[in-house]
Design a protein that fits this description.
49% strand; 6-blade_b-propeller_TolB-like; 0% helix; Hetero-Diels-Alderase-like; mainly beta; 308 residues; SMP-30/Gluconolactonase/LRE-like region domain-containing protein; four-stranded antiparallel beta sheet; Neuraminidase
Length: 308
C-alpha cells in the first residue's frame, strides 16, 4: 500500500488566517472546536491561542504555569482538551528537558474564562511531542516521545502512564537527537505515527488498551513528517516542517504535495494540520521557517488555511 513520495509544488489554494508579530515564534499543534474556532499551542512560550477562521481574529487564551513550552493538544471530552507542557529551549530547533513533561486538561465548557487542571506528570518522557485521544478507549491519550522513540499511554482519569508502543521504526533522526517518533493519531483500529529517523508514516493495529495486535505497516515514506490529520476517506495530510510542504497520502499510498514548496513561504515550517468540521479545508500551523528559513528569511509563526 505504500509508495515513496513523488514531490512537486503544491497547487491547492492557501491563505494566511492569522500571524503573530515577531520572528522566533512557533505554533506547534492545533485542535478544531465544534463551533469551528481553532486552538493552537505555542512551543516558544507555554500559551494556547484561540483563532476564529471566519474573522481572522486571534487572541491569547491561556498561559500554563511551570513550563516553558506547549506541544500537543487533543479533545478528550466535549470542549475539554488535553495539552502537553514541559521545558523546551528554542534555538534552531526544540531542545527538551527530559522529565519535565506533564499533561493538563483545559476546560472551555460553559465559561468565558478557561479552567485548567493538571491531569498528571509523565516523568518518564524525554520529549512529549505528538498527542492524540485514543478512540477505542475514551480514558486514554497517546503521547509520541520524540527523544526516546516510543509512544506512551496516559489514563486521563487515573493519571497512570506506561509505554504503549515501541518499535525500531521509531528511532531517532540522524540529524537530531530530539526527533524520533513525532506525530501520532488514532484512527479506527490503528495508531498512525510519523517517524523522522526513518522518514516515513507508519501504522500499527492495536487493541482497546493501545497494545499492538500485529506488525507495523509502512503507509508511505521518503520524507520527514511532523504532525498530521486523517480524513474520513483515509487520506493522511502531513506537515513536513523544514521541507515547507503539506503532503497528501491517499488510502492507496500515493503521495503528492498539496501545498507549499521547498523555497516557498506559503506554509514554511509547517508543524501540524487539522481538518475543518466539514472536511473541505485544512488548517496548518507553522513556525515561520525558524529551523530552516526559506528565501527571504524567517517570518513570524502563522496559521494557514488550505482549500481541499
Amino acid at each position: 500500500m505504500a509508495r515513496a513520495a513523488a514531490l512537486s509544488n503544491g497547487t491547492a489554494s492557501t491563505r494566511t488566517l492569522f500571524q503573530l508579530q515577531a520572528n522566533r515564534t512557533w505554533f506547534e499543534n492545533l485542535a478544531v472546536r465544534a463551533d469551528g474556532t481553532l486552538l493552537a499551542t505555542r512551543m516558544d512560550v507555554p500559551e494556547v491561542w484561540s483563532l476564529d477562521p471566519a474573522t481572522g481574529v486571534g487572541r491569547l487564551l491561556y498561559t500554563f504555569p511551570n513550563a516553558t513550552a506547549l506541544t500537543g493538544i487533543t479533545e478528550i471530552a466535549p470542549d475539554t482538551y488535553a495539552v502537553t507542557a514541559g521545558d523546551i529551549i528554542i534555538t534552531t530547533s526544540g531542545q527538551p528537558t527530559p522529565g519535565t513533561f506533564a499533561v493538563w486538561a483545559l476546560d472551555l465548557q460553559g465559561s468565558a474564562t478557561p479552567a485548567a487542571r493538571l491531569i498528571a506528570a509523565v516523568p518518564g518522557a524525554g520529549f512529549a511531542n505528538g498527542l492524540t485521544h485514543f478512540g477505542p478507549n475514551a480514558d486514554l491519550v497517546l503521547i509520541a516521545d520524540a527523544m526516546y522513540g516510543l509512544i506512551w499511554r496516559l489514563n486521563v482519569v487515573s493519571g497512570a502512564s506506561s509505554v504503549a508502543l515501541q518499535d525500531a521504526t521509531m528511532v531517532r533522526s540522524a540529524e537530531s537527537p530530539y526527533l524520533a517518533v513525532n506525530g501520532v493519531r488514532s484512527w479506527g483500529e490503528y495508531v498512525y505515527y510519523t517517524a523522522d529517523g526513518t522518514k516515513a508514516v507508519y501504522r500499527i493495529p492495536v487493541d482497546r488498551n493501545a497494545t499492538a495486535t500485529g506488525p507495523v505497516e509502512l503507509v508511505a515514506g521518503g520524507f520527514s513528517g511532523d504532525d498530521f490529520a486523517i480524513a474520513a476517506d483515509g487520506t493522511v495530510y502531513v506537515a513536513t516542517n523544514t521541507a515547507n510542504e503539506v503532503l497528501a497520502i491517499s488510502a492507496a499510498g500515493d503521495v503528492s504535495v498539496l501545498a507549499g514548496a521547498s523555497a516557498s513561504p506559503a506554509v514554511a515550517g509547517c508543524t501540524s494540520v487539522q481538518l475543518s468540521p466539514d472536511g473541505r479545508r485544512l488548517f496548518v500551523t507553522t513556525n515561520g521557517g525558524l529551523i530552516k528559513p526559506v528565501a527571504g528569511g524567517e517570518v513570524p509563526a502563522k496559521v494557514v488555511e488550505v482549500v481541499l
